[in-house]
Amino acid sequence: AMGCKSTKSAGAGYGEAEGPGRPPPPKWAGTSGGAATDAHARLAPPEDDVLPWVAGLGGGRGQLAAAGIDGNVHVYDSGKRQLLSSWRAHPKAVNRIRPLDDDMLLTASNDATVRLWRLGADGAPRDGSEEPTLTFVGHRMSVSAMDVLGAEGDGPATTLFTGSRDCTVRTWDLATATELHQHKILRNVVTAVRAVPGQSSIVVQASEDLQLRLWDARAAPSPVRVVRAGPNQFICIDVTPDGNYVACGSKGFSRENCEVKVFDLRAGLKELCAVPCADQSIEALRIVAPDRCFIAGKDGYIRTLSLPDVKILHERGPAATAYTAFGVTTRPSGGLVALAALAGPNGPSLELLAWPDGNMDGEPALWAATADGTE
User: Fold this and answer.
1) To which H or E segment does residue 211 belong?
2) Residue 2 pLDDT
3) d(CA 308, CA 238)
4) What is the average pLDDT across 190-215?
5) To 10 degrees, the CA torsion angle through 246, 247, 252, 254?
6) Within a 10 A sphere around the Cβ of 40, how many other Cβ atoms?
7) Nearest 5 degrees, angle CA 263-CA 155-CA 205?
8) How confident is the model at residue 164 (pLDDT cuts 50, 70, 90)?
9) 258 CB-contact burial (10 Å; exposed 0-12 / middle 13-18 / buried 19+)
């Protein structure tokens, strides 16, 4: 459908030579294995074991935050190209972070809670506070996904939507941390959720049970649409800014398993496209325009894709190790900047990438990087 091409020749996998008969993939000029060809700033590495999530912070300051499995949050300034702050958010791993307004941050954790923090200019809790503004308590297992409702043009966010390994989704009052509703479905181990832009109450949710669910959270949350999305498990999803399409990245160990699928939200999650795009699990998928998204995978590649007709436009890699997270934000002067996290034997490494002219199809500049994994 939609002219999609299912191709397995778009790029060599991590550690795999292109080889005779296999054409070289389209690469960003000037990249070789993720290494910089020009001088770039050095980022201080975060003191953590793995970084499972990266997100841009609010306020238009060009800051990005990385969540760590040691329970920390690490905030980087893309303009200064430096680590601003690292602080303890939970006693267990931070799985997800979600900015709220200009100076607030939600953190979801393996400790089964979500916490709301008010941040200072350096991205750390304001006034050095070690206590969150609010704590959302109710899940019985790790909180694996979350998003907020009522934002993005529909007024201030009022409701938090969370999903957990306890097979429940829950809604919460953001002002008081009061649980409003919960809904449990057997085997619905939540892997990802995303609120639909332009809709005040609609959420898309992926699960280990290979179903894709559309929830209406206006009252007690209930799935208004369920489609079988398998055979591969979705671990990252995002929705286009116009609210028309949801793109999903899957877990796997071969090109045929690691797909990007696109579903039409206007047609009840009708599947439009399924294209193998990586050789190992797609760990992050970020839509940055109605017709563009980035994916980052365990195969050591960052790829630019077209939407909704999925095609690999460009790729960067292979890096020395696997990508674990990828987040984007807008710089104060315009243009996109991304923070990409990689796993390594000596801890995580980071790359700060920028598209100065706003042309996301072109080569990003490597602005800064930690020493490990980039040389």
Assistant:
1) strand 211-216
2) 40
3) 12
4) 95
5) 140
6) 16
7) 30
8) very high
9) buried
